[in-house]
Amino acid sequence: MAGLLVAAAGPEIERLIALLSKLPGLGPRSARRAGLALLKRREQLLLPLAQALGEAAERVRVCQVCGSLDTTDPCAICADRERDGSLICVVEEVGALWAMERAGAFRGRYHVLGGLLSALDGVGPDALKVGGLTERAHDPAVREVILALPATVDGQTTAHYLADRLAGAEVAVSMLARGVPVGGELDWLDDGTIAQAVRARRPA
Ligand SMILES: [Zn+2]
């Protein structure tokens, strides 16, 4: 560990704050604030959090079908017979799956890639769950694979790679539309978004 995060504190507190500082979005300063908030609110925060962490560590699993996280394997979405098994929505990470579920607009199943292809970061196809996707796409029950990947260079590179890999399967491959967000004023949008929206226009 490079340098003490907290002077004048015991090793337990130092370790707590060092671990907190590894969380996304938390640097050393916000980790100290979070650690202090936890220690000061023992009953309301520290103990319930310790219990929740213990339960999550013990019970949460990666779904062997789709790569999502749940306490059951297969996960609740893969096991739900009410969902449309002919649609597979490919997402980068579980956070994107949760966002899709919050929107409530998709009732098919998912496939979590676990990242994106990136020449810059040296992420190749072997680092992603691509094999499982092509295998699932060859299931005759599957009709369409929707690539719900970010509108970034890596996202689009990955989408084109997957479209190529899925060419051998008898499925339609689609991507999410890009364009004007709900409630979006044209004045506030960047040029790329407006250009995409014009290209993706539809009959009124
Ligand atoms: Zn699953």
Give a structural overview.
With 204 residues, the chain is of the alpha/beta class. It has helices at residues 11-20, 28-40, 42-59, 76-79, 94-103, 131-137, 153-165, 191-199, and strands at 61-62, 69-70, 84-91, 108-112, 144-147, 172-175. Strand 5 (144-147), helix 7 (153-165) and strand 6 form a beta-alpha-beta unit. The chain starts with 10 loop residues before the first helix and ends in a 5-residue tail after the last helix. 19% of the residues are buried. The mean pLDDT is 92. It binds zinc ion. The site of zinc ion has 8 residues, from helix 4.
Task: List the topology elements.
Blueprint: H1 11-20, H2 28-40, H3 42-59, E1 61-62, E2 69-70, H4 76-79, E3 84-91, H5 94-103, E4 108-112, H6 131-137, E5 144-147, H7 153-165, E6 172-175, H8 191-199
Parallel strand pairs: 3-4, 3-5, 5-6
Antiparallel strand pairs: 1-2
Helix pairs in contact: 1-2
